Amino acid sequence: MTRQGSPSPGPGDRPEGPVGDADADAATVRVDPRGVLTSWSEGAERLLGYPASETVGREATMLLARGLPEGGLPEGLRPDGGQPRWTGTVTLRHRDGRPLDVRVLAHRQDPTDRAPGGGWLLVSALSGTEAVAEDAELSRWAFDQCPCALAVYDTRLRLRRVNGAMDQVIGLPEDEIRGLHLAEIGGKPQSAELEDQMREALTTGTALDARTFMRTGGEAEEHAWSARLAPLRDEEGRVRGVCLAAHDVTEEVLARQRLLLLNSASVRIGSTLDVNRTAWELADVCVPHLADFVSVDLLEHLADGAEPPPGPVTGPVPLRRVAHRSRTEDRVNEDAPDAWVKVGDVQIYPDFSPLAACLASGRPVLNVMTDPVMRRWAELIPARAAHAKKYGFHWVMAVPVLARGTTLGVAVFSRFEGGVPFAPDDVLLAEEITARAAVCIDNSRRFTREQNTSLALQRSLLPHHLPRANAVEIASRYLPASPHPGVGGDWFDVIPLSGARVALVVGDVVGHGIQASATMGRLRTAVRTLADVDLPPDELLTHLDDLVIRLSAEAGAEQTSAEVGATCLYAVYDPISRRCTLAGAGHPPPVVVTPDGRTYPVELPVGPPLGVGGLPFESVDFELPESTVLALYTDGLLDGGDRDTDEGRRILAEVLTRPAASLDAACGAVLSTLLPDGRAQDDVALLLARTKVLDTAHVATWDVPADPAEVARTRGYVTAQLRDWRLEDAIFATELVTSELVTNAIRHAAPPIQLRLIHDLSLICEVSDSSTTVPHLRRARAFDEGGRGLLLVAQLTQRWGSRHNPTGKTIWAEQILHPENGEV
């Protein structure tokens, strides 16, 4: 489409008549905030007869014929009036004494170089500027030469007049289209829609704004147009036609689209830490909004985990295709028929090719398929040239993928024949989007390399997933030591226990390598086994200490127990009582963060590291309010640089008190603060647990008298409670389990006897008594009168067991509930 604009004036385009200052034909004066005249124009002298020498420096009130009106100056002219502009009629005194009614336009002015104090600029038009016949000629010239495209239609929506700018838009002279309707002139659906809006403006008598996209004047490129449709009225107010004023807003629309595309790229690119996925996202964002076809090729050796060379890449370059998108492809199968190179293939590009040229220069390279360079490149592989011609490739832009001064590859943007070439703004946009994607690709590459080195460690040493529990909310991090990637002895674990409790474990095996890894695996398995029998923390560490001593002995006479040593921290949290019991074996004490933001390390009795032997372990028991954060970690988190352990613990406590979007975000903040470079001198394990509470609505407790007659009554309590919890499907099984456990306690144990139901992620039935004798599951013989109760319990529940407590024992049975509706 023809671009609109005013031609540069030539020698014969000079205006006729004098061209002077703005003050030549108007009376203009300036008044400062004190009311003193500070300037006086020639027009003011002609209007009032005073020369500047008699007015400048005097008060402006000297000009008033009748003095100040009653009440002082009009509000708009007062220094504190606040209005930016005022207009009105003022009676002034001519120098010869006669009064003059003068129409004044006053502008409030801020301080400037010409008027340092600010004040008012007062203007009054002189005579000689009244409407004359020449104005009609000026109006006609204004219509014909207005840079805005104008068209006038009558009440039947027939074209009557167009100006020169509209001639260029339509591409036809006025004589050939006068009398036609807009839909007939344009011949497009958009023309008919615009004519309907003109009819609405004509019918309602209200001006309308319209926005349309169409090709005009025979142009191949579609433009965006903003149109104002205004009804035309005669002197009596009757609507006699409609005026269409059109503005080409293509550049504004394109700029807005580029901005939206850039914003979309910042959101969509880099959603994962995967190199290939990021490359696909780059191509996906740019098709079809920026190009018809986009491909991303990375340096071949990046796939092997090697570091890319710094700076530009020269010479023939082997590149691996990692992603491409086309507007003609099948998005379901991600199949682009117009792609010559398939994803995963490697191609070697000569130094004169666009891809190699852009990598060598570090700048975008723009080519057309008819360029000599492109023809030379096409001649190397005729089949490739035929393929490009078949699918209409025409404009090609190669942009280097650069991040942190390192060349990673190249992104190629192509447009098909029949489209529009790349504009300079398109090149800048492609550079910006590619630069953002390059940073994401580089981050993904670095992460992938680190992930591959530690993958074996994470698979074998750490839990694959943390268990779901209502007792605590869990988040964790593990970072292997940078000098020893892939193998280490730090670990953490979260172990569900009976009674809705949970065990939190963090341990650290001395040393690195396969031996430390194997020892860690054994200790982790031992801890889970000992936790399953519900040993108290101090007793569990004692058994674990014996295991480490045996492992040291098995290591051979050449090694000492210190070489197969370890530290461990074991904590048990009960969400019903809110009590936490923990014990440590040479391990750093955990940090507690209360809901009100206070932090303190747990005062844990000093216990020896595992493997020393002969020394006792002690437990500490304390209450934790709901939403308390318990931070368990290994010493590699605190040690770093010239920082000592106390300083590291202080920084850890400070970071944990900062607000965080989630517990996982808090983990990230701890690592980024204590290990800002992401490298640790020793393995790091961090486990954060935010405590929850099971309130009385989820727990029911009954004291059961040691009377067999109470069994039936107890069943009734259980049935009513399950109905309150809407667990009707669990009533039958729970009644049987309760009857068996309560009956066994009455017959074989000693009072007091207590029954407790816990509604958590599972349904738990517990019966406690004062006896320390633990029942065992056995198969009853044909003539036995008992022995079938626990077998029945085992069949009806998911799992069952027993644990000792300070006053006796507890037998428990657990039924798994459906995760969605709480049903068994």
Q: Care to describe what's here?
A:
- With 824 residues, the protein is of the alpha+beta class.
- Helix content is 30%, strand content 27%.
- The protein has a six-stranded antiparallel β-sheet, with helices on both faces. A five-stranded antiparallel β-sheet has the order 2-1-5-4-3.
Q: Ranges with pLDDT <50 over ≥5 residues?
A: 1-9, 17-23, 127-131, 557-562, 779-786, 820-824
Estimate the helix proportion, in percent. Answer: 25-40%
Total beta strand runs: 31
Rg calc:
44 Å
Major sheet summary line? 6 strands, antiparallel
* Strand order, largest beta sheet: 13-12-11-16-15-14
Task: Show the helix and strand layout.
Blueprint: E1 26-31, E2 37-40, H1 42-48, E3 85-93, E4 99-109, E5 119-125, H2 134-145, E6 149-154, E7 159-162, H3 164-170, H4 174-177, H5 182-186, H6 189-204, E8 208-214, E9 223-233, E10 239-248, H7 250-268, H8 275-286, E11 293-299, E12 317-326, E13 346-349, H9 354-361, E14 365-368, H10 372-380, H11 382-391, E15 393-403, E16 406-416, H12 424-461, E17 472-479, E18 490-496, E19 502-509, H13 514-532, H14 537-554, E20 566-574, E21 579-585, E22 591-593, E23 599-601, E24 619-623, E25 629-633, H15 645-656, H16 663-674, E26 684-691, E27 699-704, H17 710-724, H18 731-748, E28 753-759, E29 762-769, H19 789-796, E30 799-805, E31 808-816
Antiparallel strand pairs: 1-2, 1-5, 3-4, 4-5, 6-7, 6-10, 8-9, 9-10, 11-12, 11-16, 12-13, 14-15, 15-16, 17-26, 18-19, 19-20, 20-21, 21-24, 22-23, 22-25, 25-26, 27-28, 28-29, 29-31, 30-31
